[in-house]
Amino acid sequence: MAEDYIKSYSFQLAGKCFHVKSNSEINCFLFPRFSAFLSDCDDPFSIIRYTLTEETFSSEAPLSYAERDKLLGTFEYPLEHFEIPSWNSYILNIPPVRKLLEDYSGHGERVTLEIREQSLVVTDFLQHRMDVFYSGGNKRTLSEGRVDPLIFSPFLHDMNSLIVHSSCVSFDGMAAVFLSMDEGGKTTAASLCEGGKVLADDRVLFRKTDEQWLAYGTPWTTFPPDPGHAVPAAFFLLEKADDFSLKKMGSRELFSFLWDEHHSARFHIPRIYHTIILDLYRDLSVSAPVYLMRFPKNYIDQDAILKCMKQ
Asked: How far apart are CA 139 and CA 196, in angstroms?
């Protein structure tokens, strides 16, 4: 297996540096939505390493149950997401993989594993490191595949931050944040805002400073990427309707939505951090007023939205 990382990328999100290293091409990092966040920062908050292995596994014997228990027994990891029983994953036989797991076994409660037959993700929450191993048959996936926000998000609680499934439009440094489930209108609402600057329409990064929360743009957007930030001035929970209307809601409704909508992201994080994440969601939920916004496909009342943002 190749040990050298021939490609290295540094991204800056919300003022923090994320290094990504790979021994194979990751072409999507050259797309405008990612290249806008490239940086020459040299003090990484997090390091993500992609390793495409050259081994084939057809002749490898899987681990026995005893070998699996010895190698993996100290780790916390999501069993129900296994595609196969973990001891049948041939990738666990690769020496660099076994060495990495042995090195991390001393703090296994702060490490999660996602084991599949031809891939492995090892996330070390103590050192802010993620290692992603792919078999040789996944070269095209690694080169051309979509990079999931989860590779940048596991350690965000250590910088008082969250990635939220939402769209965000900045008006003179104040942000309207639109939230819904998939196909719920986040992108449509953002596109109908005239005179505003869209920071992102799928994932927004929120970071709490000493004084306030800030909303930052991310690469996960269909609009031109914008690394800027704005102060959340109002949250709008979206519903499709025949007519436009706004109804004031409480922070509890927003917190409930955030907690339920981001369940899958918490699944990848050790339980010892869940209370910290809960507190961040709760604090974000009370940082600005919350409204239920019902609207038709082609119309929003922007003046009414701006009025809510000024209250």
From this structure: 40
Band of pLDDT at residue 90, cut at 50, 70 and 90: confident
- The pTM score is 0.90
Name the CATH topology of 159-310.
Phosphoenolpyruvate Carboxykinase; domain 3 (3.90.228)
Tell me how far apart the alpha carbons of residues 192 and 302 are, in angstroms, rounded to a whole number: 8
CA 189 to chain centre: 22
Contact 101, 108 (CB under 8 A): no
Residue-level length of the chain: 311
CA distances from 209 to 120, 165, 214, 265, 288 (A): 35, 20, 8, 22, 15
Mean pLDDT on 50-71: 71
pLDDT tens across 251-296, in order? 999 999 999 988 878 878 888 899 999 999 999 999 999 999 999 9
- Please say whether the beta carbons of 89 and 120 come within 8 A: yes
Domains of the chain, residue spans: 7-147, 159-310
How far is it, in rounded angstroms, from Cα 221 to Cα 200? 5
